[in-house]
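Section 4.2 – Deliverable D4.2 (structural model, holo form)

The reporting period included a commitment to supply a predicted holo structure for the target in complex with adenosine-5'-triphosphate. Inputs used:
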Amino acid sequence: TDTRTTAAHGGAIGLHGIKKWFGTFQAVDDVTLDIRPNEFFTLLGPSGCGKTTLLRMIAGFELPTEGQILLDGADISSLLPNQRPVNTVFQNYALFPHLSVAENIAFGLKMLGRPKAEIGTVVNDMLRLVHLEGRGDNPVTQLSGGQQQRVALARALAPRPKVLLLDEPLSALDLKLRKSMQMELKRLQLETGITFVFVTHDQEEALTMSDRIAVMSAGTVRQVGSPWDIYDRPAERFVADFIGETNFLEADVVSVSGSAARVRLSSGAEISASFPADAVPTGSVTIVVRPEHARAGAPTGMSVLRGAVHDIVYLGTDTHLHMHLDDGTTFTVRQQNARSGHCGFSKGDTVGIDFSDGVAQILRD
Ligand code: ATP
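Output (structure tokens):
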């Protein structure tokens, strides 16, 4: 492999007590985060939660009202954008339409005054990296949307930043292209070793690509973790609700031992559930169970829950069974369709619902 494109130095970013006010509106409220070197890190949250503002502060386009931004331990809070070893790729990739592919990629290097020979070598490396060999002389306007986005990535990667910031870079692409660019971005991050900080409101995109995710809401970080932490162990209602489909159940804590609790459901059944390490549960709690972690079948005395089927949605690979539990709560079970045919349930059927010990998670109050 070519050491010039694989020479890895991803930067570590420390955000310490970051607050940002626009006039009287607080867009970012006391965010502290450590992004590790070489990590694919995603800021995920609904529109308006402050993720772009946070990214723009790392880039230097906005200054924090309070707090420090560190890169590899050094305070970069007061540096101008072009003084930071950080580059940004935007959604509307903003290529120069009158320049060729190679000239677009070379642009940042020219601005930095790099020698011509070096620029030529780096541009060729970058063309190879983004699979556009032989296309250097093409006008960028002759490329497809996906190819243009790859040129924008090559242009941003060419000066070897320690950190690449990506602000919803795939949202202008159609679904199929977006899926293939997700794999491409992941590959580019692994091959270059550059720390990627990716902004999206698309939870599936975040789960697919990230080493770790910070879920944001209203200017604050609600939870940081690997995709499976965030999905299987949501710490609070907002996170559980924002990521995937979820069933919420009310329960009472019976006992706690180590990292597991026994809880009693309204059906009277007792199950074991895990909980966030910093929030030992007591009294009444809310628990979550993902639809695919539950099973529906004929009701027995051992069933954890009982309910009546109120809707059946066939989705090709899966069937969603929407139930009304005896206490009036709604509950969804997602079953894989192992073989062709009907799922075996009809509207109005009374069913038993079961799930294995350990799949339920108690939420923080
Ligand atoms: P989106 O995905 O819609 O871009 P976001 O999570 O990235 O959402 P931000 O763009 O960071 O959100 O904006 C956070 C809040 O700050 C929003 O309510 C926005 O209107 C406000 N905001 C952002 N920039 C400014 C500005 N320059 N002046 C005033 N308010 C701003």
